[in-house]
Amino acid sequence: MTDAHETAADRSLRTTGGAPPDDAGSSVTEAPIPLLDPREGVPPVVADASALDRVTAAFAAGTGPVAVDAERASGYRYGQRAYLVQLRRAGAGTALIDPVACPDLSGLGAALSGTEWVLHAATQDLPCLREIGMLPASLFDTELAGRLAGFPRVGLGAMVENVLGYSLEKGHSAVDWSTRPLPDPWLRYAALDVELLVDLRDALEKELDRQGKLEWARQEFDAIASAPPAEPRKDPWRRTSGMHKVRRRRQLAVVRELWQTRDRIAQRRDVSPGKVLGDAAIVEAALAVPAHASALAALNGFGRMNRRQLEQWQAAVDRVKAMTESQLPQPGQPVTGPPPPRAWADKDPAAAARLSAARTAVSALAERLSMPQENLISPDTVRRVCWEPPKPADADTVAASLAGYGARPWQVEQVTPVLVTALAAEPEA
Length: 429
Hints:
The protein is an alpha/beta fold. Helix content is 50%, strand content 9%.
């Protein structure tokens, strides 16, 4: 690669003068340079224990932060496991690791335990990395850094182009990464995803520092790194697309039974559930509650199935028909916390006035700070504080409430004054 490639962060400072744009996201003024190949070429895929040991030793001996990325096979395989892990670190170069052939990367994770990891959209990759024994003690999330810095486009390609002046080819982002062997163009794409990640981190750190937001970002990164694994979602079948059409309890039970049957089949076959049966077909069957397999075959999504498959799905419907009323699910999910905001005006006009004032104030503050409202403070936190405000609603009690709902110290400091004012809002006559 060229010398310009090796000083990407310097190129960013040269083209921006070290300052971010007033219209964030258009910092580089020169035409982007296509990034076509990793500087040391595409490394061989690590697919055995001895190669993994060599990579582990090399990365343990490297210096500075380590760029980390993972590729999944969403839409092709069951679950969200990693099918390729990419790393890059100064002194170690780039490594591409096959976590199917090497499913335990805890040794590599331990070797990097004292190192800052650089990821883009960390919350997307951390669950699958955790499954194979890799979890950072500290991290820098370049996507989140871009949000806090006020960039309107925070995808990796847009950030690399706008901040560093290079264009990444993104044509392989949605391919089936469970494919073996992985095609060379895919491996090149995967290696390039970590090629400039540390350069991007360095440039964004300077930008956040210039805006006075670096400590805010560090608090956000620490929160991500220390977060426990997400709890399994309760009643995941209720998230079936098109559920708003399903009203009756027995129809809801058909959705549940078909969803659970599909999930078992998908897990056994290791394919995406949508490849077994689409959500639209599940909802249509629930609305129709077909009497027999022939009636089921007439519904969209079932017409091309063979007799055995149709009978399998009809059996799920028939199990619902045999259920007693007590076995049927209740419509909706138990609501925790405040009711939907649209109901506030009727239920509690004073709370509705507080929420309206709070939303307006938070929106204005987020605009002044050049960041999305949801990164300034969680909308759910605002709703909870407005629905049941502390008494008295002064700076100390509001700050304590925000902290109790998980707001970071920087968020508490910024948001508390505007919420104190909003909580004093009176409903319109």
